[in-house]
Amino acid sequence: MITLHGFAYSNYYNIVKHVLLHKGLPFEEDLQYGGDDAYLAISPVGKIPALTTEDGGHISESSVCCDYLEDAYPDVVPLYPTDPLARAKVRQLMKVSELYLELPCRRTIPFVFSNSEVPDSLKQDIRTTAERGIQAMNAMCQFGPYVLGSELTMADIYLRYVLKVVALGSERIGWDIIAEIDGLKAWEAMMADTEIARRIDADQQADGPGFFAHIKQRFGL
Ligand SMILES: N[C@@H](CCC(=O)N[C@@H](CS)C(=O)NCC(=O)O)C(=O)O
């Protein structure tokens, strides 16, 4: 059986978990918060999430895990179109949203956890990068009703959890980035209104105490 390593508070973990649930693939969860050497044998950078495949191989990096699940189980509820260009467009949206929205906003996380003010220089850096992401997302998103048209794709799942960190960062810097992308709020509400999304959100909330206890111990916060 597939094993998903990581913790439910992680937005990246939840991308892969959502894909597994959407495809209906049997899997077990192995609680890992990272930060210990043993985990490096499964995830070379020590990042959450990682997968152990049915063959016993290990893979990390969320988008790579998504691709693996599609390649290994292509006929089980496909999440990429068959046309190569359309597939690339799905991956383009995933990458753009991660690089130009999630990653800049992720830089606010230490300030979220310590409930402290983000320095103006960092706020400006975030704005410079996110403005390019917003412009690109406004050009790419279709909301028909899914992000790239009438079919739900990997991009919908990926974006849902990218936006969790964008929302956190937005709140901390006082700039609602999600509101800058036309139609994104309505899409977000639609994506939240599924059994899988509700299960993942509930699991995430339930992991809050365990995650914060780990952070406290690991970083002495
Ligand atoms: N590029 C990685 C990023 C994953 C990531 O940043 N995961 C966080 C949890 S949300 C993590 O592992 N944090 C612990 C650490 O950096 O040691 C991916 O796509 O999977």
Describe this structure in words.
There is one protein chain. Helix content is 57%, strand content 7%. With 221 residues, it is an alpha+beta fold. It folds into 2 domains: 2-78, Glutaredoxin (3-Layer(aba) Sandwich), CATH 3.40.30; 84-195, Glutathione S-transferase Yfyf (Class Pi), Chain A, domain 2 (Up-down Bundle). It has a 4-stranded mixed β-sheet, with helices on one face. Strand 1 (2-6), helix 1 and strand 2 form a beta-alpha-beta unit. The radius of gyration is 17 Å and the shape is globular. The structure holds glutathione. Glutathione binds at residues 10-12, 34-35, 46-48, 61-62.
Residue-averaged pLDDT: 97
User: If classified by CATH, what would the architecture of the largest domain be?
Assistant: Up-down Bundle
List how many beta strands DSSP finds: 4
End-to-end CA span: 37 Å
Broad shape: globular
Q: Into how many domains do the coordinates divide?
A: 2
Strand order of the largest sheet: 2-1-3-4
Share of helical residues: 55-70%
Outline the low-pLDDT stretches.
Answer: none
Hetero ligands: glutathione
Class computed from helices, strands and strand pairing: alpha+beta
Annotated CATH topology of the largest domain: Glutathione S-transferase Yfyf (Class Pi), Chain A, domain 2
What's the quick description here?
The chain has 221 residues and is an alpha+beta fold.
Notable characteristics:
single chain; about 220 residues; alpha+beta; Glutaredoxin; Glutathione S-transferase Yfyf (Class Pi), Chain A, domain 2; four-stranded mixed β-sheet; about 5% strand; binds glutathione
